[in-house]
Amino acid sequence: MEQKLLSNFGQICKNQTKISLKPFSIARTLLVNPSTSDQTISSILQNLETLSTAVAASNPQFYHLHVITLLCEISIVRRHFSPRITTTLHSLSLHCPNITPRAAGLALSTSVPYIPLPRPTWFPRFQRGPRDCFYLSASCIVVEDRGMIEGCYLRAVELLFDTEECVRCSAVHMVSEWGKFLVANSEGKSKRDWSDSLYVQLCSMVRDMSMNVKIEAFNALGKLGIASEYILMQTLSKKVLPITKEKTLHGQLSRKHSNLPASTAAGAFIHGLEDEFHEVRSCACYSMRMPAILSADFATGALGLLMDVLNDDSVVVRLQALETMHHMAVYGHLKVQEMHMHMFLGALIDMNSSIRFTARKVLRLTKLHDLILFKLVVDSLIQSLEKYPQDEIDVLSLVFDIGRNHGSFAISIIKEFFPEMDPSSSCNWDFNSSKTAAHLVLAISVPLSHGKQQQLDLDSIPSIIFSYAVTILGRISRSLTGVMNQDTLLAYLSHCSRSSGPHPIELMKGEDKMVEDDVATKIDSQITCPVSVRLDMVHNNNDGDFETHDNSDNYIKFILANIVQVWPLMKFGCIHEVLTTLRSWKEELATFITDPSCQSSSHLTFTSQYLDVVKLLSKVWWHVMCPMDLICKESGNLGYILQKLENKLRELQHRFIGLSKEEELHIQELTHVASTLKSSIFNESLIKKLEFFSLKEIIFQKNIKYMDAEVDVGDKYKYKYNDWLNPIPFVAGLPVGIPLKIRLHNVAIETKLWVKMTMYEKLREYVYVDLKQFEGCEKEWNVCLRRRLMVLEGMVGPHMSLFIFARKKRCSFLWFWLFVASEEFCWLEGFRLRQIL
Amino acid sequence: MAIDCLVLGAGQEVGKSCVVVSINGKRIMFDCGMHMGYTDHNRYPDFSLISKSGDFNNALSCIIITHFHLDHIGALPYFTEVCGYNGPIYMTYPTKALAPLMLEDYRKVMVGRGEEQQFTHENIIDCMKKVTAVDLKQNVQVDTDLQIRAYYAGHVLGAAMFYACVGDSAMVYTGDYNMTPDRHLGAAQIDRLQLDLLITESTYATTIRDSKYAREREFLKAVHKCVANGGKVLIPTFALGRAQELCILLDDYWERMNLKVPIYFSAGLTIQANLYYKVLINWTSQKVKDTYATRNAFDFKNVHQFDRTLLDAPGPCVLFATPGMISGGFSLEVFKHWAPSESNLITLPGYCVAGTVGHKLMSGKPTTVDLDKDTRIDVRCQIHQLSFSPHTDAKGIMDLVKFLSPKHVILVHGEKPKMDLLKSRIKSELGIECYDPANTETVSFPSTHFIKSDASNAFIRSSLTPNFKFPKDEITDTPSLHVRDERVSEGILTMGKGQKVKVIHQDELVTMVGGGKTEVEFGYCFGLNLCRLKNISKEVRVSNGDDSLLCVLNTKLSDEFGELGLRDCEGSLEVNSFRVRVCKNDDCPHRVDSDELSERLERVFFCCNWSILDKSIAWRVISVMKNMDL
């Protein structure tokens, strides 16, 4: 079919004598079909190119409009054709200088975000500008002239007032794109002014009558960076705030709308949220994310509106509102108040299961400030559970989570609730009810609550409750699969039911104590990483009964075995989950590291650093694959992360002795991946090479050793007062001795050791330390440095092992850098600052 | 040609909307309403102002009705049947369908009150026969010159704004409109048009309403709380409009929250009204239209017909009953039954006429309500007042005016002091002329009139390409790019005798006029001391002669004016259009000669010419040259 259409298209193109729209419709048919091959599109393009110069003579303007529109469509649907389309457009503009400005504007606005801006000839008269230069680079536009950006921006602003809907739509797009350039190219106060005026300008478009313009405006707003706080607050109120009243911003240069009053932004988001079209409403919800991250005040105001949106008739909009709230919660800007509760908790008993699920997701991250709120939440959860028993697993796990987060509130609820379920009382208590289950889960969550355990009045929880909980063990353990398995739960419950409370079952105290410790470690080791284990569930489909590990080795094995499964998740885009997993693993590992010198710790250090590498790698991966995502912009500069990753990898490679072939190979592979990712920033095609990359399972074959060194400046008291007022007397040319205490770990005696001393950046000296000379002094040497030592500048070769002893210019403290290297070419970085003078 | 706007009703007041606009010779009457507050002649607009003779058919081109509310249509049967207007009348389909119901209802009430009947049932039917129904955005050619078009206005079912244009002049009359959508009607929607005049309502000229979500939330919270506690909710409403909106809201909430409490509609009118909505689905909001394919939003899932036996049935329920202000009828009956119970809830509409039970409930918190001498009812139930309004607020009006940016704005349908405030806002913030005439006043202003002209090919070509300008910034002297899309750039309008008006490109002017190009040039001829110059020439070591003098000048001047591009042409030096040469002509017309004859021998004269553009450069060069003389 595809071939048939294509040949048809080609024939018409060749044979047509007068202009018809048929080839365009055929081309469009092919274009909209996602399964059309690139080859076909390519030949369409070729035909268009030949056409544009050949047949167009009779009615060029009419014809070119269609060609341009089609080209734009192709560039939107198939982004990788953009460069080629740009050239086509370019040649087109050369041949036919009379393309109408509107068409040019439209083409420009569609091209800007996707493809490099055409060469200057695209606007034939741009060349006249004495200082305007465009640089065409591989994936972005570099425009070097403020005047020109300003000109384009203001032109786009003028087009916002066009009578045609589609022109206004494109104009909004253009304003936002050029506006971003403008902001990026300004400094200081004018940067803020421009970003404000851009924001207000776009806000003014949300009151357009056309749905498409409104959607476009909100999308643009959602992508914008920052605006002044008062403008953000103004967007939440239809009434003009006092602060906004007199302010005006850069507007158009000409015509009657010469300046732009800040009050134009009034109520932009309110209008968006109460729009007639659900598309607009949902876009408005989405666009509130960015300002909600930036300003806590805005977030508070926006939350009030979003809570009301939960009453919307469209599921999509409600879901989007909840997602935005979740986003706010992630950034710690979600402050739920009692007045919100009616709407918010309504979402928990919504008909739609995804709404309920998202509402619970938000609730998990919500901090409840007082008991009333907490009670409301628990009651609603129970109500929701009664109505939708199918949600039980998630609801109970949520109850468990909020119980752990709000231990003291949970206790007071239990206290109230407990008398009701006492079997001795006359009331008819249903032990199978959802209510009981929820309350029991709440009760068992309390002893595991985060932090401040001492402050909780744990004794006030009757221990019999834990015995009751055993009766519905199956139900509870199903909900808590992510946290602990059934056996652990049973052990925990039976322990709790014996240990505390008014019921004296404390028989053998000593034994009991032991049990308690045991359980505590067992539980701790598994609970601290709920997310990670849950992720494993998704992939393994096992019932979560991985073995309990009470020593670090097993834990390391577990991590190294499971880290392989993290990568596919990464590829699916669950960056947050992956990072949380890695973080919690790392925290867990950190608890085992006590003394780096002992043997088992080398494995720990390795694993910990390996986790770091994977974490950084995930971040970089995410950056490169999804550069538009908002989150990653937040998570720091790509260059910085890459640098960090490279350092970590180098350390991993060189500071461990005794790595097996496979391990070394894997680290090499990681290094390669990192550098490929780095170069793929400039050349996107490289990404394809990484398609099949995944992490490998590492099993330690041999004992690895971790090289480390510490430098200690000997006479503490002498240098104690070495601050900027009383620097160490360090006169150039005079022999001054600074005694150093150096401690080396796992460094072979054959290793060559150098101490580097730097002063004022330029003055650098190296001292060779012959380890053999100190042999026998066990693992500590006292090295006395004299400044007469040989100067080896420029001769620092790969075979040298160095201590770097750098002295910073301002001399308030000393830096100790440690470079240890083995026989091969290695660089090791890392320092341990024992003492800051 | 001019636009005259005669306000017959709703000028600085609310009620009997009626505006007659003469636009390029056509007269259109917008709305023909009645005032509910009067029973005398003030009830109707003063139609005699339209035509003293009473020949309305020739005086008016057409009548346009925006929606079916009585203050917009109430006087129509009177005007057509009693006053005898027979010309065309336009309104939208739903208005045509619902208007006779409203009018008939009103006539019955009047008859019931024993007032004099203004028009009969037959009058209404005959009147409606003259009506032409129009659809949204349908171009209607009233006659050869006058074209009208309806735009969606929200407000009530079938409400429309009307666009009218005659020749080059165009205007919009909004009627009542709503800029924020509600559950069953959309927001007003109009294209961006080139307008001379916008006549807009201004009911809420100063109010700025907050989000409608807050109002909905309060309402739902109150109702939900009541039924959750087993109470009964009475919602007295008007048959059409609010009842449907609230019902959609509740039905939706019920479904979402999975509530099983029954919602009842009292018999008759409301159910019938729902029927109209179902038929006229195209005039409702986007959401209703969207879901129409799967389910008609007016087929309420949880709504049942009410049965009188249910009045005292136990258990919670929600009941919609008419009339809205509990002035009598079924809602009063239910009120009697339900008001004494604390668990029940009664919602009141935003506005209740004084004297009705609704009004009594609104003012203060009465514990008892006297229905008549013998009946007193204890009121223990909760009261919730609704604040929904189908009119746009001040911000909506401003937004619409800004969006349309007409040349003039006339405010009607509002209260004088508030309209004044809005008027001054429109003038100051938007820079648009604004008026708020009282009844029977006329506002006039000129209308737009375009003149057709030909354009030369060269001009069209120059206009087709984008026009980028690089005007110099006087202060910083850096060219800033000025991107403009002025396709009518820099043309010259020519009007020859007996010829059509034509726009030509500036380059064509000379050939067209047949004249030559004349440039004004300034001249200045002055003498310098030859000795001094020779001294200087020794310093720079050049040979004698006239050329040598110029060389001297060149070296001197290029220090100062090098960056401007000093050129040494044959026998003269040039900077832009400035030109200096040695002048041998003793009778040079530009010679400025005040010196004595004796010194003349030692002097050499330089003659300078320049055009006005380089005035400042010229005088700088001259002053430098004169300084050399010192």
UniProtKB/TrEMBL annotation, chain A:
GO biological process, one term: intercellular transport
Transmembrane segments: none
InterPro entries membership: ARM-like, ARM-type_fold, INTS4_C
Keywords: Nucleus
Species the sequence originates in: Lactuca virosa
Domain of life: Eukaryota
Intracellular or extracellular location(s): Nucleus
Main location: nucleus
Cited PANTHER family: INTEGRATOR COMPLEX SUBUNIT 4
Any one of the GO CC terms: nucleus
Gene3D superfamilies associated with the record: Leucine-rich Repeat Variant
Protein name as it appears in the record: Integrator complex subunit 4/Protein SIEL C-terminal Ig-like domain-containing protein
Sequence ranges assigned to domain Integrator complex subunit 4/Protein SIEL C-terminal Ig-like in this UniProt record: 726-778
Record Pfam families: INTS4_C (PF25458)
From TrEMBL, chain B:
The keyword Lyase is annotated on this UniProt entry: no
Any one Pfam family match given in the protein's UniProt record, by short name: RMMBL
GO terms of biological process kind: snRNA processing
Keywords: Hydrolase, Nucleus
Transmembrane domains' residue ranges: none
InterPro entries, per database record: Beta_Casp, INTS11-like_MBL-fold, MBL, Metallo-B-lactamas, RibonucZ/Hydroxyglut_hydro, RMMBL
Beta-Casp domain ranges (all copies): 243-361
Protein name: Cleavage and polyadenylation specificity factor subunit 3-II
GO cellular component terms, semicolon-separated: nucleus
Main location: nucleus
Family the entry assigns: Belongs to the metallo-beta-lactamase superfamily. RNA-metabolizing metallo-beta-lactamase-like family. INTS11 subfamily.
